[in-house]
Amino acid sequence: MIVNTLKFGAIDVLQEDQVHFPGGLVGLSNLKDWLVVPDPAAEDLFWLQSVARGEFALALIHASKLAPSYRPVLPHDQLIKAGLSDQDDAEIFVVIN
C-alpha cells in the first residue's frame, strides 16, 4: 500500500507494518493508524507517521537513548493488546518536539 507523506513523499508499506491505536493519540483521536519510519538523515530519529494524513508526523527517539536504564514494566493485558507475548519485544519511544 502507498502512503503519501509530507516528509518522505510516497512510501510503500505493508499492512502489518502499521501501528494501530484504537483510541487514537491524545489530541489526534481521529487518527488511528500510524507507521514508525526511520529518518534517513539521523540515525537515532524516527517519525510516527499518520497513514491517513500525510501532513501529520511526530518525531520519535528510543527512550533508551534518553534514559538508558529506563525499563518500564508493561502489564500483561497491555502486551496482549499490543500483540506481544514478551515484554522484551516491545520498543519504547518518546515523542520529541
Give a verbal description of the structure:
The protein has 97 residues and is mainly beta. Helices cover 10% and strands 33% of the residues. It is built from 2 helices and 7 strands, in the order E-E-E-E-E-E-H-H-E. The protein has helices at 63-66, 76-81; strands at residues 2-5, 9-12, 19-20, 33-38, 45-50, 57-62, 93-96. The strands form 2 sheets. Strands 3-4-5-6-7 form a 5-stranded antiparallel beta sheet. A two-stranded antiparallel ribbon has the order 1-2. Strand 5 (45-50) and strand 6 (57-62) form a beta hairpin. The longest helix has 6 residues, at 76-81. The radius of gyration is 14 Å and the shape is globular. The N and C termini lie far apart (29 Å).
Attribute tags:
97 residues; mainly beta; 33% strand
Shape: globular
Strand residue content: 25-35%
Q: What is the structural class?
A: mainly beta
Count of beta strands: 7
Could you estimate the helical fraction of the residues in percent? 10-25%
* Low-pLDDT ranges: none
Q: Give a quick account of the main beta sheet: strands, pairing sense, barrel closure.
A: 5 strands, antiparallel
Q: Taking all residues together, what is the mean pLDDT?
A: 92
Compute the number of helices. Answer: 2
User: Can you list the strand order of the major beta sheet?
Assistant: 3-4-5-6-7
Ends apart, CA distance between termini: 29 Å
Q: Please give the radius of gyration in angstroms.
A: 14 Å
**Element string (H = helix, E = strand):** EEEEEEHHE
Write down the oligomeric state: single chain
